[in-house]
Amino acid sequence: MAPRTGSSRRSFVVASVGAALALGAGGTAHASGRSPFGRYGSPSARLDERTLYVHPGGLGDHTTVQAAVTAASGTGHTLVIAPGTYRETVAVGAARTELTWLGASEDARDVVIVYDNANGTQKPDGSGPYGTTGSATTTVQADGFTARDVTFANDWLRADHPEITGTQAVAIKVQGDRSAFLHCRFLGHQDTLYADSLALTAFARQYFAHCYVEGDVDFVFGRATAVFEHCHFRTLQRTDLAGAPYGFVFAPSTAVANPRGYLVTDSRVTSEAPDAYYKVARPWVPGSDPTARPMLTVRETRLGAGIDAVEPYTNMSATYPWQSQRFAEYRNSGPGADITVPENRPQLTRAEAASHTRRTYLGDWAPWSREGC
Question: Where does the signal peptide begin and end (predicted)?
Answer without folding.
Answer: 1-31
